[in-house]
Amino acid sequence: MPRDSIGEALAWSGRLWEQMKRLRSARSAASGRRGLGLSAKLLLLTITFVMLAEVLIFVPSIANFRITWLNDRLVAAQLAALAAEAVPGGVVPDPLRTELLRTAQVRAVALKRSNERRLVLPPDTAYQIDDSFDFRASARGRGVGSELALRLKLIWQALSVFWGPEGRIIRVIGEPGMGAGDFIEVVLPEAPLRAAMIRYGLNVLGLSVIISVITAALVYFALNGLLVQPMMRIARNMMDFSRRPEDASRIIVPSPRRDEIGVAERELAHMQAELAQTLHQKSRLAALGLAVSKINHDLRNMLANAQLISDRLSSLPDPAVQRFAPKLITSLGRAITLADSTLKFGRAEEAPPRRELTVLRPLVEEVGDGLGLPREGSVDWAIDIEGQLRVDADRDQLFRILNNLTRNALQAIEQQEGIAGQIRVVAMRNGARVSIEVSDNGPGVPEKARAHLFQAFQGSARKGGTGLGLAVAQELVTAHGGTIQLRNTPKGATFVIEIPDRSV
């Protein structure tokens, strides 16, 4: 296992486990807030809207019923008036007059012909008229303004019958049939009209209830089959999947529907498959982390022994030994520190950077020495950095960043055959920021790897690679408040790192 990957596996395992716990907490909170079901809401809304539609139909229909009932009284009164006029001598006996008025359900009848108004059937007793209504065509068009205003007026008059006072006497004027005169005028009590309107309203109410129930049932079963049941199936699957998201058998099987429900099912299946794969990967990482922690303990002891031997080597007078021993001791010390930190934290998060002004060029040279660069005849190693350029960063973490990028570039060049490779590191200061470029003339980064370039185990562009190097580099750069990105170049790959100075 590469030495910078010893703790990274534990890191990603811990993060995925925390995400899983948050998902289960959200599911538990949602399950405790259950209310009225979607089917019940749909049924209640359907009944409510159908009843509202019936009310909107009932209001104008009750107004039309009132007009029809009063016109019937006018027709009956006209027949009674014709019968009264047919009596010999023109004098209507009281019993006949009473019978005619009772049959027509009116109190009095007057008729106007040839500009002469005559009381054909006078009332039995005196009365006081409370309101008058003129149903003649000329009267309807006078002062109304529009057909809509007339309809609203008739609706208001019909509704006022229900809440008007008891015992009202009204007068109704209309046009007699078959040109029997200029107009006919009747006086009648409003109570029979109110009773007839109540009976009509109850009949309409009963019919409305029947229509509402039938319509609501049809709409309910139709929408329940088309929408509610598929949505409940999706909800049940989500709840079942959330209990054991690692189980791939709980992934929803999309239906062949082509509408929005089908799209939702297919997207949910895709999301669940990705989550199940991620959690399966988390389990493998947990097992890997356990194995790494066991190996790491013994590895630390081995590195400590190697460090003791290297300390003894540094005392030899050989010039080559004196040249390479300090670098070997530094590398061993860095490896021991990494092994200790891996054992200390199980959450595997990177420690906050301990920043200081670090001369950059010697650090880059150390990276090249650790990777054996340059390599005669195969890989050239170029450093274009001013000798006194300093960067405000954690020296060990910056070493890991540059080491990961340089090693990736070296591995990419080694995949090419017959082409001399080159790795170049360029750095410069731009105000309060230091820009570092690590470039190579290798095959570059494939398009399929660019979408997940900085994601662990997904952004590897090399067969057999883990993709951890770039993920760790991005995490460390971000901890410094900087950025890392891949620059588009015609050939090879160029990674640009921006590290700002600390704000005072």
Structure characterization notes:
By secondary structure, the protein is α+β, with helices and mostly antiparallel strands. The chain folds into three domains: 166 residues, no CATH class; 102 residues, no CATH class; 152 residues, Histidine kinase-like ATPase, C-terminal domain (Heat Shock Protein 90). It is 56% helix and 15% strand. The strands form three sheets. A five-stranded mixed sheet has the order 2-1-5-4-3. It is rod-shaped, with a radius of gyration of 48 Å. It starts with 7 loop residues before the first helix and ends with a strand.
Can you describe this structure in just a few lines?
The chain has 12 helices and 12 strands. With 504 residues, the protein is α+β, with helices and mostly antiparallel strands. The chain has a 5-stranded mixed β-sheet with strand order 2-1-5-4-3. A 5-stranded mixed β-sheet has the order 7-9-10-12-11.
Question: What are the defining features of this structure?
Answer:
504 residues; Heat Shock Protein 90; 5-stranded mixed sheet; rod-shaped; disordered N terminus
Topology (elements, then pairings):
Blueprint: H1 8-31, H2 38-85, H3 94-104, E1 108-113, E2 116-121, E3 131-134, H4 137-140, H5 147-163, E4 169-174, E5 183-189, H6 191-243, H7 260-313, H8 319-344, E6 356-359, H9 360-370, E7 379-384, E8 390-393, H10 395-414, E9 421-430, E10 433-440, H11 447-450, H12 468-479, E11 483-487, E12 493-500
Parallel strand pairs: 3-4, 7-9
Antiparallel strand pairs: 1-2, 1-5, 4-5, 6-8, 9-10, 10-12, 11-12
Helix pairs in contact: 1-7, 2-3, 2-5, 2-6, 6-7, 7-8, 9-10, 10-12
